[in-house]
Amino acid sequence: MIYTIRHRTTYSYDSTLSFARCVLRLTPQTTDFQTVFGSEIDVTPKPTQRFCRIGPFGEETVFVTIEAPHDELVIEARSRVEVLPTSIDPNDPGPSWESVRAESFGSADIGPLSPASYIYPTARTPILPEITAFARESFPAGQSIATGAVLVMRRIHDSFAYDPTATDVTTPIGEAFAARRGVCQDFAHIMIAALRGLGLPAAYVSGYLRTIPPAGQPRLAGADATHAWVRVWCGARLGWVGFDPTNAIRSGEDHITVAVGRDYGDVAPVDCIMLASGEQSLKVAVDVIPDGERWPDEAVIKPLFPEKAPA
Asked: Of the residues 65, 82, 101, 229, which has the fewest C-beta atoms closer than 10 A?
């Protein structure tokens, strides 16, 4: 599946802003199952400084500094990406979770794909007894790693309510777990903490999810959103496998990966420091359009990387 993606973030301020510095992780990754044909990020007003580097987990990170006076900051990322079906057999349960745990703690690799980076707790994914106990119910002795991960994923989906008003980006996972409410970020963090509590490697994935408008209804411009799910290391043979607890499905062609890290803090799409007085408002609009489908605002969207598209 080939997608064109537009991610537009707009900050508006009550007063004129004199300075802003932002870290942007908006460029999708090229992996074994995903190819980026082209990606660009526009910032308005034009930054006085801009540079890019690859982060510790393979994420492309753009740093910008804006020093021109402004009352609105617009960051627009556009990408064209192909996502291939995974070659992992969904019926392969993998090795036992105990053997995966032992293999993970025995790893001497510290690269971005090593399980060693994703075993330990972080500030956003602490090891909490109640969350570990929740995971343990799905991992009796000898349980296969993939089977246990599927059970945890489904139990989060079935037991938790999706509620955008219940949490925000700073809500501790203990509160979201106790309330049984939250959004995809909360569900991913809870699943990660649950697995790490058993010594199993789990990573946070930031990206996009293809949505399909209701039958007979037009696609609304900007109605898509960023998404978060989990990758679980299922041993050297299976490697990393994606699980989406918000939707109780394995990740596949509808999931477009932007960045992978230990938690949201490693992969936040837009992270800004701003100097201003008064209030600010934030608006995020995302479009994820598969090839062959018309853009909702096709009259104004410019073609993206036509020279880089596959034949």
From this structure: 65
